[in-house]
Amino acid sequence: MESIRLSSSFFQRDVLAVAPELLGKTLVRSFDSGETRRYRITETEAYRGEEDLACHASKGRTYRTEVMYHLGGKIYIYLIYGMYWMLNFVTSEEGHPSAVLIRGLEGFSGPGRVGRELKLDKSFYGEELSTSCRIWIEDFEPVENYQTSQRVGIDYAGSVWAGKPWRFVIQ
Known about the structure:
The longest helix has 7 residues, at 15-21. The chain starts with 7 loop residues before the first helix and ends with a strand. By secondary structure, it is of the alpha+beta class. Helices cover 13% and strands 32% of the residues. It has helices at residues 8-11, 15-21, 111-117, 159-162, and strands at residues 26-30, 36-48, 75-80, 84-91, 98-105, 108-109, 135-138, 146-149, 167-170. The protein is globular. A hairpin with a 5-residue loop joins strand 1 (26-30) and strand 2 (36-48).
């Protein structure tokens, strides 16, 4: 099967459609060393707009969240605990801030481990997935067997938002 890079239009849809459909897709990373690696996406989480109190955009448009307000298909990356770069893909239409957090790749569970494995840094912020030479997503057969559950580590958002089943994991 020939690999086909996903176009921006794949990401320019509702985050609750994009997040589960990313499962099983191939994340491709071309490193500075010249090595290119392919990883199967195994776990995602959806963050949907300013109304979602777990979403960074719930605080409004800021320097940090600016790219989330752009047209889907860009990278939203941020640092937590001063050491882990969290990889997110912006979804939806311009002005509707939503993103999918990549929580797991085959062999790497947890968004901090994903960021370390991919050697991410702030230079990826705003990068366009459809044209990047460093990181992109290739299509693969859809995954039909996956679980949904509550998102992780967002108790601060309150029980309604913390309880949303917006985490998607391959079974």
